[in-house]
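Recap for those who missed Tuesday's class. We walked through two folding examples back to back. For each one, the amino acid string is listed first and its predicted structure tokens come directly after. Nothing is annotated here on purpose, so try labeling regions yourself before you check the end of the notes.
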Amino acid sequence: MARNPDQRRRTSLHYHLIGIGGTAMASLAGLLKAAGHTVTGSDENVYPPMSTGLQQMGIAYRQGYRPENLEPRPDIVIVGNAISRGNPELEAVLIQKLRYTSAAATIKEEFIWGHQSMAVAGTHGKTTTTSLLAWALESAGLNPSFLIGGVAENFGTSFRLTDSKYFVIEADEYDTAYFDKGPKMWHYLPDTAIVNNIEFDHADIYRDEEAYEFAFARFINLIPKNGTLIAGWDSPIVRELAAKSFAPVESFGFGGETTLASDQPLWHARDVEFSERGTRFRAFRSDEEWGVVETPLAGAFNVRNALAVIAAAEAVKADRDGVGEGLRTFTSVKRRMEVRGEIRGVAVIDDFAHHPTAIRETIDAIRQKYKGRRIIAVYEPRSYTAQRHEFQQDYVRAFRDADEVVFAALYRPDRYTKETALDLGKLVHDLASNGKGAKQLKDADAIVADLSPRLKDRDVVLIMSNGGFGGIHEKLLTALGK
């Protein structure tokens, strides 16, 4: 018979995480340690903020994958979703018949059973929305536990374990492990579920748009009748899938004609004002005003994120004044429009965007926040999807509102053929044909050498990559300082 969550937490186990340096895995390591377990791990090429985070938590990990990393013998091995057959440490786990599982299954077993799960899903905006929801509930006095795919600056961490009944989690659609190819979000038992938007992504694991949409359809199908689906009504696919929800639906949208024509109870924004200080708007549920929202976040997509959080907070009857204070005092997430520094009047901003839609919305938000300033977009095509040809034309549209665009080379060109790879030369040509300054340079060092001498006061450099990008942010700031 399975133990209940309280009994489980009183039993200390030794968990060993293969691939501990990933964002989700390092955060899970911290949760497990906070729950009283012994935690070890292994990985390659760990970089901040996860490397420093593991050190601060006192969690030992070994560089490289080797069978001897499994000594002393752990009770449970958690296999990261980037680990595949042939990994020498994984092979030793299989040979020795060690008990192994996935990160998502561990989260469900250790932390979600017996709690009210508030899960945030969608193609774009998950990390910011999850962080904002956790902070809004914290400000409302609900003291939630949480697990986020990035460092929430208000908390200074990507995870927390409390005695609250609420567990806030970023519900990722990426696959779970080599032995469980379903999405991680299927494990998270959602009670209150936000689905921001759905747009095809992760071409490495989803064969087509139908398969991708099915992942979200099943996630929505997991919400119980006494739960709530918070549905992004600006996304046609979300609208379509929400119709099949067994749970009540609360919809939200920026406020355009498409969303306001909805017959759903619709959360939307009116009188939206953008400035360098942030965003201000009035939040409504249909024709009933919730209140005035002030937030340092920028861009239309962050208005949607805030509306989703308000709707989720209302679903659990959180204190409105506390939620409003949380929205006002939110300080973003590392690597989500994070200002890394401003030297000689040049702002250097770091963002995780890699899908064309996310890039377009991030540039739009920067344009709205930094009105009248020149925007130089610097992009490293790094994710599997980002380096594929399917989004060739979408990238032309994505970068149209930047004043200048600089591309780094494909991160792993060896994975693609001429037919399957993004053609950066053509992308530069197409942007130039539309009157856009665009170029391709080899790597971070070449980009810094090109940009630093010609950047001027009030320029904004928006650097986008879902990896370390060769430490380009600090290199550029150092060069500007000289």
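Example two. Treat it independently of the first, because the proteins are unrelated.
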Amino acid sequence: MNIFRSEEHVKRWSLYYRMAEDYIMPVTDWAQVFSGPLFRRRLEADYLTNADAYFSEYQSSLRNFGKQSPFWQYPMIAGMDIVKLPRYAIVGKYTRFEEQVLNELKDAKQSIVSSLADVSSSRKNFLIWAAPGSGKTFFAQQIAAAQGQKFDYREINLAQVREGEFVASLAALVQSSNPLLCLIDEIDAKPHESWPYDVLLPYLDASLTRHTPLVLIMAGSSGFSLQGMKERMAVRPKGHDLLSRIPAENQFIIPPMSFGDRILIVLSQFAQAGHELGHEINFVEKLGLYYVALNEQLANARQLHEFAVRAVERVPHGDDRVKYDNLFVPGDPENKRFWLEVSSVAQELVNSYVTIEE
């Protein structure tokens, strides 16, 4: 285990691996994870017979800190047969793989949608801690898209605006007479400035007097957890006052993308690329799926979509399968490099396919 002074310090580490952010937590949190009864018995002779219970407790402890232990083992893909994408949908095209995360985010979505229909005089403020790359902006956008023209939607990124721009953007919110959903992204940005929360505070009370709902989603990623982010926010000017205006039931966590989440994204991007190109894609070779899901260079949806389009373009006319070789231009050394790296353990992924059902 590596120990660092701060979140900023760990991200400057030369061996920092963004895809492993699930495991970055304060030492005090790790101490709690490994303090359970099963961990204290690890030197007992029959300890390995409790491996399943050990792993379950480990994952449960991580979830309590808003973390998800990713499944990096290839057997997860080897055991896949049919993936029904709608089964994992939370709202619109936003999907998550793990059952607990799926249902917790459905609850969050439902709370936000219900607030947009609530005309009572009450605060409709939400706080979301989201791991980097977990799609918090896309989550809010899909909630808005799913509601059609029923309300207005705005986005303000605190990290990208100056004080005057922030003031003007917030003032524009209350000028709308329609129900309005606003995502205030990077709510934990500008920690050394005194104006952000001072400016924002009156708008957190706006729904007490408005005739139509104003729902504010404040989202950030610092502090390694929801509690850690709240502690950082609380010590800022007006930070405690801001947090006191967010009901406890309106505070949610969007955990990091797990290996299963990346598989869902990969499959949906291949299917979408096929629709755009008029080339139906129903199957993806498991070795290719394994490669894409582990590729750190395909870290966001835009990069992944462009990659998927190029791969589908290489699929011969009349074939509805994306093969591993379709992922690379002829002669690309990356094709051979990855195969040599995984061939000793992933032979069963070759010429075996996952079926996509939309």
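Answers for example two:
The domain at 99-254 is CATH 3.40.50.300 (Rossmann fold).
The chain has three domains: 14-65, 76-86+258-357, 99-254.
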